[in-house]
Amino acid sequence: MSATLFIFIVMFVSCISSGAAQNSSGFDHFWLVQSWPPVYCQQINCKRKASDFVLHGLWPVNSTGHSLKNSSKATPNFYAMIRNHSFAIEMDEYWPSLGSTEGHDPLKHIGFWEHEWEQHGSGQPYEGLYYVQAAIRLRKSVNLLRILGNQGIFPDGRNYWKTAYVDAIKAIYGYPILKCYNGHLLKELIICVDGQARNFISCSKKEQGSSNCHKNIINFPPPK
Ligand SMILES: *[C@@H]1O[C@H](CO)[C@@H](O)[C@H](O)[C@H]1NC(C)=O
Ligand SMILES: *[C@@H]1O[C@H](CO)[C@@H](O)[C@H](O)[C@H]1NC(C)=O
Ligand SMILES: *[C@@H]1O[C@H](CO)[C@@H](O)[C@H](O)[C@H]1NC(C)=O
Ligand SMILES: CC(=O)N[C@H]1CO[C@H](CO)[C@@H](O)[C@@H]1O
After folding, report:
1. Ligand nearest to the CA of 210
2. Structurally, how many domains does the chain consist of?
3. I want to staple 108 with a disulfide (CB 3.0 to 4.6 A). Which of 85, 89, 101, 145 is the partner?
């Protein structure tokens, strides 16, 4: 083999394996962000009632946990996606816009999905449908109420140690990030997912530090 060809092959292979294209934006991994509606709805006026965690979004972040966006990336065609009726039902169940409709009309969620894409989803390397399917698949695979309930943590309006929430989730998915309203009401639980949107990983110490749950005890309000 000629030296030039050899060098060419080495460069070509290392270019593929370093994932250079995926990393040009600093993209490193995802945050699977799930909201707890009883607290989320203290901040916005909700029409839809929900008694389980709902997807807020699947946010690409860089290695220090900063959300990435890319305004030149085209917004996916959500209208086309929900023409698949079974997918539309899943989108409505797991990723509803709580403020938009009390019923189950997927068309009413599109503005929210587009907003999530533009603000938090666009800075990731995958094509729109793949990304949205990954978000739904990940949300379906994570049953936070069951995982917390197995450790005796229930949405019953009582206070639980912050470490109890963290330990319950850490044992299955790795360290999460907790977000609160008023410093002590459980609003969101964030789990980290690798850059392929496949495996759960621990959120870094720095990412955990972005929690705004300042109290050691966190209240878990019941569904309305
Ligand atoms: C932003 O998206 C455009 C269009 O898909 C792409 O060409 C560009 O490389 C992206 N920029 C970054 C930093 O990923
Ligand atoms: C992550 O993004 C933030 C905000 O844009 C930036 O300040 C930081 O340097 C980035 N970190 C890395 C490791 O790219
Ligand atoms: C429609 O959505 C369902 C549920 O997500 C999925 O299993 C199926 O593959 C989708 N069909 C097409 C044609 O994409
Ligand atoms: C999606 C992806 O390929 N992310 C990689 C970006 O670069 C860092 C550091 O080199 C890797 O750890 C990520 O897996």
Report:
1. 2
2. 1
3. 101
In 84-116, which positions are buried (b, 16+ CB within 10 angstroms) versus exposed (e)?
eeebbebbbbbbbbbebbeeeebebbbebbeeb
In a domain, 56, yes or no: yes
Task: Please name which ligand lies nearest the alpha carbon of 60.
Answer: 4
- CA dist., res. 139 & res. 159, Å (int): 25
Closest atom of ligand 2 to 65 CA is 1
Q: Rounded to whole angstroms, how far apart are CA atoms 219 and 163? A: 13
Residue with the smallest CA separation from ligand 2 atom 6 is: 66
Quick one: pLDDT at residue 23?
55
- Report which protein residue has its CA nearest ligand 1's atom 12: 25
pLDDT digits over 124-174, tens only? Answer: 999 999 999 999 999 999 999 999 999 999 999 999 999 999 999 999 999
Ligand lying closest to the C-alpha of residue 64: 2
- The model carries a pTM of 0.87
Q: Kindly state whether residue 40 falls inside one of the protein's structural domains.
A: yes
Question: Could you tell me the CATH number of the domain that includes residue 50?
Answer: 3.90.730.10
**Domain annotation covers residue 17:** no
For residue 95, what are the domain limits? 29-219
pLDDT for 34-89, tens place per residue?
A: 999 999 999 999 999 899 999 999 999 999 999 999 999 999 999 999 999 999 99
Alpha-carbon distance of 200 to 58, in angstroms, equals 13
- CB of 63 closer than 6 angstroms to any ligand 2 atom: yes
